Amino acid sequence: MALLDQNEFTVSELTAVLQLPQSTVSRHLKILADDAWLRSRQDGTSRHYRMPGRMEGEPAELWRAVRRMLADAPWLAEDAERAQSVLAVRRQRAQEFFSGAAQDWDALRTDLFGERTVQSPLFGLLDPDWTVGDLGSGTGAFAETVAPYVRRVIAVDRSPEMLAASRNRLAELDNVEIREGELEALPIESKSLDLAVLLLVLHYAVEPQQVLEEAYRSLRPGGRLLIVDMREHAREEYRETMGHLWTGFDEGQVAAWSSGAGFSAYRHRGLTPATESSGPLLFVGTATK
After folding, report:
1. Which strands form 39-43's sheet, in the order they lie side by side?
2. Separation CA 82–CA 7 (nearest Å)
3. Quick check: is 115 in a domain?
């Protein structure tokens, strides 16, 4: 129990540490588990045991008394030393795996868990009471991603075709509201958003500062603006092939528009390009109302 109060162990690991027959260790573990002195979890073919995280009442008082009695027992220190050797072997197994898999680890993790493994945990930082504006929502991909983490999403787009696609995509999400409208005249009440997101849409705006002014109006005091868009580039053909009105932006441009709209503390960072991407480099910009 002293060992299991510090770490979890399998039967075979405890057998090695305690130098007792496996049948003896298993019998004692069963008795302790049946009386709720231990908890266990199954991991493949092994079962791991540990003391409960919190013990209350008489069992907790009894265990504290026993631990005080055992404080100077020499065999307790010996067992603890053997336990460290067992844990070192366990850590070494993991280290050997990563030593051999380091070159392929990113691809392996992507195969197992998908491409969003690194970025998706960041959505957990969003306040669950927030209302998020997906401004220029397109087919609703971002709204679909962020909706499980916040109270409400308002998705705005001017294209009937994009709105139809997003309605199909978001039909099962009851906290997403889809609205038709222009970014320069948002169909959103003033001071109603906690976060306004412009994801790869600002380069389609005739007047980017007017778009930012509308975002500012729609945000509550202390609300945040998030922009992701292209850095300045020389691919003029995008004006014809993709309808772009701007060939990206430099930091000074966006910072000036942001300040002119009323925002403060604008921050601008270049994003690391994905290896498979073929488009211009991107940036992320944030500001506060």
Report:
1. 9-10, 46-50, 39-43
2. 13
3. no
